[in-house]
Amino acid sequence: MRRIRLIGGVLHLRYLSLLLISTLLPAVFVGACLYYLMFTILAEDLGIPEVIAKHLFPVMNKINIILVAGFIPMVIILIMWGFALSSRLAGPIARVEREVAQIVKGEYSKRIKVRKKDDLKSIADGINILLDKIQELQKRRG
User: Fold this and answer.
1) By C-alpha distance, which of 86, 113, 123, 84 is closest to 10?
2) Is 40 within 8 Å of 46 (Cβ atoms)?
3) How far is CA 101 from the centre of its chain?
4) Rg of the chain (C-alpha set)
5) Which class for 39: exposed (0-12), middle (13-18), buried (19 or more C-beta within 10 A)?
């Protein structure tokens, strides 16, 4: 079982920041649009009577409380989700990079191991087949 942890590379942080930006920016935009809508409705230049404005201010305060109370857990959940997704993407890439670096150093008996569900399984299998063929050629010549 893979533990979710920081892979220790720029790639993981890049995926994590991309995921967070792509989820937080739309949320901030929608929130800003809602606030703009509320303030334009409450604007005095629209001629809202005092009676209506008096009833809208408590509603606006409740909306503010809900937004503030919901924003913090939402950010925490998005960070956890982004961390899990970026680990799923960056983990196999980091593993393949480490193992290819060992192979390049001359360890041709080394094989790239990935989990069955990893997205890079086909690439790792192709490299492993290539290594098998290199070893066969070396045996024939040796």
Assistant:
1) 86
2) yes
3) 26
4) 27
5) exposed
Count of structural domains within the chain = 1
- Residues 8 and 90: their CA atoms lie apart, in Å, by 10
Which domain does 51 fall in, by range?
10-141
pLDDT at 8 over 70: no
- Residue 34, pLDDT score: 80
For the chain, report the end-to-end CA distance as a whole number of angstroms: 40
Is-contact 113 99, C-beta < 8 A?
A: yes
**What is the value of pTM for the model shown?**
0.53
Whether 20 is covered by a domain: the verdict is yes
Q: Is residue 81 part of a domain?
A: yes
Confidence check: pLDDT of 17 > 90: no
Q: Which of 100, 78, 94 is nearest to 23 (CA)?
A: 78
Q: How far is CA 62 from CA 67, 68, 119, in A?
A: 9, 10, 45
Between CA 40 and CA 33 the distance in angstroms is: 10
pLDDT tens-place string over residues 44-100: 556 666 666 677 777 777 877 887 788 788 878 878 887 777 777 777 888 888 888
> Residue 71: inside a domain, yes or no?
yes
